[in-house]
Structures are given as structure tokens and as C-alpha cells.
Amino acid sequence: MKQSVGEVLKARNQLHPNTVAALAGTRVLDLHRTLDTADTLGATDLTPLASDDPRALPLVRHSTAHVMADAVQRLFPGTRVTIGPAIDSGFYYDFDRRDGRFTDEDLARIEATMREIIAQDLPFQRTERTRAEAREALAAQGETYKLEILDAIPVGEAISFYQHGPWADLCEGPHVPSTRFLQGVKLTSVAGAYWRGDERRPMLQRIYGTAFPTQKALDAHLKQLEEARARDHRKLGKELKLFTFHEWAPASPFFLPRGARVYNGLVSYLRTRYARYGYDEVITPQIFDQALWERSGHWEHYRANMFVAVGTDAVGAKGVVPVNQLFTAEGAEDRAALEAHGAHLHFDQVSGCKAMNCPSHCLLFATEKRSYRDLPLRLADFGRLHRYERSGVLHGLSRVRTFSQDDAHIFCTPEQMDAELSSFFDLRDEVYRALGLDKVELRLATRPTEGSLGTDEDWARAEAILAESVRAKGKTFVLSPGEGAFYGPKLEFHVTDAIGRPWQLGTMQVDFNLPNRFGLEYVGSDNAPHRPVMLHRAVLGSLERFLSVYIEHTAGAFPVWLAPEQVVLVTVADRHLPFAQELAQRLRGHDLRPLVDDSNEKLGAKVRQASLLKPPYIAVVGDKEVEAVGVNLRKGRQDLGFFTTDALVEKLTAEARYPT
Asked: Which of the residues 186, 370, 536, 545 is marked catalytic?
């Protein structure tokens, strides 16, 4: 006997007015999905999913994409549809429109038509068709792109259509029950996109939008976007003179003096924590022979994201010639000959620029014979890393091609793992508290479905160890199935920023594979060789990416201990400059970072200019202050009143200490 998901929930009195779908394990099923007694999903596994549940958001957005495509084809007949998925920021649909480009005015018309469709409370209905029926229907509609999608569906797999009102689309689903669940809709932009991402295929028009189950939720999202634009680290990085980029070094940031102070301040603070938690810092090379990366598995699994360094010789038109010569006037003949014949260059040595530190730390472990008494060995490394990120994903500091991590690897015995994991939680909590990051969600990323190393037993053991380490600290986690690294599972620490956005920062990974691949051993208390466990850990992750998050979290107003300058000294007149400069020198003697504004602007302009740099404090120096040997101190818009120079030094020194 077949029943729909909705019928099963209704029979159990679990079908509520705001129920839009059901969960069967981690899989989302819409209410139209039919089940029978032989269904492997099993009706007993169903859990109702409400419209305001975050897990329902992809359904809302995918369903809204269908409504948008319906509206487009009503307004612009002859437009052909392609694909319209939900994405993290909302949804999009790609269109082949032959009669022109979509304009902002068109988006407004499309959005208005969408609202008319939504107001009709049209049900989304799922039907299955044979391949022949589907082909006939799509061909009759002239939907050539959908025919190509149909051909890609494996033989034997169900072919489903979803329909609301008269409009239907070849679609796997799932969808919300009806259009009434799509109350918060906003179209945002239009961009070009090649069909299937292939520049040899037709250029389409991609309309982006976002959707929420209620207008209130949409309004909150739009307000967050507005705040995010004001806090954009790329904008603030320029305004606050923190970093810049140049086209000759793509996606490779230049940290300006103010930004370098923040960057180095983070590193210095982390080094104090390393000393407390027993880490030894090392420095490792930037370039390693291909053999290292083959041994670690990165050449097979990560090669596309690595920069490759080559040796000195190549096969040219005249035999073996230096590679560099191919790019000089003298090498033009060789270069032209190679290009004409499509010949491949053959290098005498191929190396990879360091994309991660873990393989080099394995080499360090193996440099000497280790005893169980030497463990745990905690190796920290701020070495610069290089990864080839595709140009389409580059974004300010958050996605770059060169960066440094607060990276460390712990080699320990199996018996030491619990203590090391517990210690890492303490370190992480301490650092996040110091930075004012108090909203953290833990996610356990498990074994990828493809391309992972190691045995099922090792993966299950590593995942269990990480899960238990969380519970032992009285914390909870959510699962991220299949999101682990190719060599081991990981705990991810997702931090919520000041405007409610989650960001992944730190990680902890249990790795049984790299020690095996490198043949690492230590002598146990039984005088027999044993394999160490390798823990990969980072508190902040990429420092560049962390700064992109932290600049936006703080809106560029850093805490006193991390700020580029703790105080800006502003003088009323030139005659007050000697006093301000002498005070600045005294502050520097206490390892503080003052800035003196020695411009000839008026006081109001100086204060406004200083405020743009968002220092923790602004100190005004005039006749009264010089006479009383002090300053008038301001914090933001708050006037803190008069401070003697002694009191100012004491206050700033106390606040500039690294948090404990």
C-alpha cells in the first residue's frame, strides 16, 4: 500500500500548518513523495520539517526559482530555461533569452509577477514520466537545454516533473507543498554564465535572487546584507590602510604598516599561547620535490590546487636549453618551435610550492629516533603557504593564493590523544575569548564518499575519538557527512560574527594515514616500534582569512592590545606638538603604539580624521593639558575627561597586555 509522506505525517498528527517536508535520516523528502512498505527509507524514520527550520531553506529557494522561471516565460515568451538551483545566498536560474538582456526594470516586473503567482497558493505537484513522455513534452516546448539534462539522467532512474499551475519543469525536487510558503522574495542581480560552465557553449543570462519563508525573515536578511556591505573587509582594508593588492601578484595581499601591526600582533599573541601550551615552533622550506607530495598523497588528491616549480632544463628546438632562456629574446626560436609543434616541455626536476605544512612536519619527526618519552611532540609553523585558487572564487583576504596559518601538528601515542584534544579545546577557548568570539558551533566532518585514504576501521575510530572529545568537554556538535579531509575526519569550529553570519575558523583532525605513508615510528615502553597518531590543528586557520572575518566582526575597531595604534595624539595648535611628541616617545618606551597628528588642520578636522582610523582612544592636547601635564581622552564619541600622562600610560599599558 502506497502512501505519501504527507499522508503518513497526517495519520500521526504530525502534519502541521507550517510543515513543508520531512526528514528521512539526513535526506529531505517533500510531502508528495510516495512511500510503500518496501521503501528502504521507511515511514517510521520520518520527521516533520517546519518552514522556519534552516534545513527547509533550500526547498523554499528552489521552489522560488521555479516561480521565477514561470514569471520569466510569461513575460518574455520564447525564453528557454536551463537549471535553477538553491545556493547558500539564495538561488539562481539560467535563461537563454533571444530578444535582449534583462534589465533592472525587467527584474522589478519579474518580481511583481512572482508575487502574483505566489498569492494564488498554487500547489507543487510531482509526477513521474517515462523517458519517451518526458522527451515528447520537452521537445514540444522547445526546451533544448532540458532535453540535454534528460539525456544525462541514468537509465533506470526516475524522471520527475514538478508543476505549479500550468508551468512544469523537469526536476528531481524536493519542493514546498505550495507557493504560499514563499512569502519573502527578492531578485538581486543579473550576470552572464556559460551553459555547463563551458566557454565553448552558449552564453546565458543568470538571474540571482534570495528567498525566505516570511517577509520578516527576508527583511532581516536584507538588513544584514546592508550591514555587511558597510563592514566589508575589502572596503575597510582600503579606508583603514591595512592592506592592498596589485595585478602583478594576483590574490596575494600586501599588508601595509597598519595591517602588518595587526597581523604581527596576532602572531605574537599566539606565540605566547604556544609557550604556555608546550608547542615548539619550527621553520620549514617553501619548495619540496614532487616525491614528497606523492608520498603524502597530495600530488594525487590536491595537485590542481598547487603551484609547481620546475628545474632548469627543457627540451627545445636545439635540444636541452635552460627554461629561463625560453622566455628571452635569445630563446624565441625555441619557444616558437615548441608552440608550432604543440610540444611538451620536459623538466629535469619538478617541485611543488608548499600548500600545507603537514608533510614537512612528518619529515622533521623522522629526522631522529623517537621514544615514547619524547611524545607528545607539538610542532607549530607560521610558514607561508601557496595554493592555486581559481580566479572565480578569489575574494579579498578571505580567498587568496598566499597565506599563513596558525598551524601545528601533534605527534602522540594513542593513550595521549584524549589529553591533547582536551588541551586544544582549552587553547581554542582562550584565544576565542581574547578576540571576543563567543558564539561557536562545532561540526564533525566525516569521511568523504570518494578519494579518501585509509581503512574503514581507522576512519570509524578517528571519528569516534573526535566525537567523544567534544562530549568530554560538555559540548555538542552537528554532523557534516562527507566533508572530512582525504586523510582524516575533522572538527570544524564555526564562529558567528557580530551580525549573525557563521564562519569556519579552527579545525582539529585525527590522522592515522600520514604516519603510515611516511613510516613514522617511536619506541614504546615495551621497546617495540609503534606508529604515532598525528593531530592536525589550527585555532584561527588562515590568518589572512581570519582577518577578513575579524575586520568585519569588529567593523575595523580592534581591541586595544591588537589595534595598529592604541591612541592618536591630536594637538590644538603647533605649539603643542613638542609635548605630544615627547609623550608619544614615552608611550613607545612602554611598548605602546601612539600616532601623533602633526598636520596643520583645525582641531575638529584632526579629530574627524583620527576617528576614521578607528583607534581605541583619541587624546587631545591643548594649553590646559600641557599646563596640567596630561591629555583630554576620548573613546569613540565618549569624552573620558582629563588624564595625567602617568595615568594615561598606566591605563594604556594595562589594556594593551595580551588577554589571559
From this structure: 536
